[in-house]
Amino acid sequence: MIVEYVTAVPHPRTPAAGPARAGRRSLxxxxxxxxxxxxxxxxxxxxxxxxxxxxxxxxAFSLTAKGSDVTGVPAALAIVxxxxxxxxxxxxxxxxxAVAAVLAxxxxxxxxxxxxxxxxxxxxxxxxxxAAGDTSATVDALSHTAWPYVAxxxxxxxxxxxxxxxxYGRQWPAMSGRYERSGAPxxxxxxxxxDRPEDLWKAIDRxxxxxxx
Length: 213
Hints:
Number of helices: 7
Shape: elongated
Radius of gyration: 30 Å
Order of helices and strands: HEEHHHHEHH
CATH topology: Butyryl-CoA Dehydrogenase, subunit A, domain 3
Structural class: mainly alpha
Number of domains: 1
Strand order of the largest sheet: 2-1-3
Oligomer: single chain
Number of strands: 3
Helix content: 40-55%
């Protein structure tokens, strides 16, 4: 009895397999981080960032300030970053690098603005001055919540998405160029045989001029 042994020969990996896999993974991570970061930053700016008291007519009057009252920079940059994340797929080469840089800078700016706002008391000082009727009045017992740091986390996610776009963006797909501005696919003109009447009629039905060939 003759027994044959068959040894499976592994298929060699193509050189482009590694970069393509890294590109797909980085694309998924960047989309997740960018969308999540923008959502977190926008949500955090709508929450209460600071609280304190103001002395009005001998009594304590409680004051609160949302993130949007303290600073509007994180929310604005989060929207810019989200738009840049979408625009990355509409451009190529140098344009993609520039948009990716905008995405990263939006994330870094969101982090910086949120951290600065975590210790800002100007919004509550303005409220205290209005409540006391004294422009020199300031807030007492000032305290801050964790929401500014949540906004900073959202900015960090946007920054990560931008860095991934800068590093791997050239491997990501772009919007298809197979369509014209009208959205209709481009059709190649078909060859018309003048000796075949059926070809002439088909060309006329397609809106082509069979005599222009």
